[in-house]
Amino acid sequence: MRIAVLALLLGGCASGHAPGPGGQGGDGGEGGSGDGGSTPTGGKGGSTGTGGAVSTGGSSATGGSSATGGAAGGSTGTGGAPEADAGAPPVNEGAAPYGCTKCTRLFDGKTLTGWDTVKDAWVIKEGGVLASTGVAADIYTHEDLGDYRVFFQIRHLPAMGGKDHQPCVVLFGKRPADPTKAARSLGGAQFQPPNGYSWNYGVGGTFSSPAGKMKLDAKVWNQCEIVVKEAGSFKAACCTVTPDKPCKTFEVLSWKGPGRKHPFDLMMHNGGLFDEYREIWIERGQTDDSYLSQK
User: For 88-112, what is each residue's pLDDT tens digit?
Assistant: First the structure.
């Protein structure tokens, strides 16, 4: 009798402490990391088997929220581009480039505040990088600009299917009537950084490109400066980012034509392209029209 009772008690203890099924450990690959899939692997969330599902949307206060956040992050990884930038200066730290004392950030490195685009076309990656997700939709400033100087760093990642194309920015375009719909080119004058290729999307005017200019590798980080006059002109100069000091730019393109205030537009030429921008600074109403990046 005692043996039977003891066996019954032992059996009850063993079944009472047996581990439950645990949980599914989160969806992992859908969400990516909290900043919208900034790692090249598209996210490692939910790796434990103890339950506790992770977010599947990759949402964050950085503006990279969407159910496709992980996919956007993964697209960078498949492009084969390095996540780290050899020798590049810290992002979102320190003063404006080239001693531009009146410059302020046009892109804060954390949110899409001040910019218009369609949902999921652009996300913010680790390190304050504004990245396209392969959707054929521009992103442009909510503000119309007149006389201004803009700095930015840019690199182009290998295309995912479809036809590759140089990265593009557009000036002197017209603001789209509906910012919730995908826009392309805004009917302006296109500059393709860093090498100064160009295209007229209906604004008219004349492009000029210096003879014998150097050719830069668009797939590494390059620094560009554009000086814009509302009356109808811009000029652009670029150089490859160096690890120890600001690079000295050389002019790659200039344009003259009809003037007007306009959004500063980062153009996505076609679907399947992946361009990245960082350190976007602006000086409004500049009086010195020379390049600060050449001094």
Answer: 444 445 689 999 999 999 999 999 9
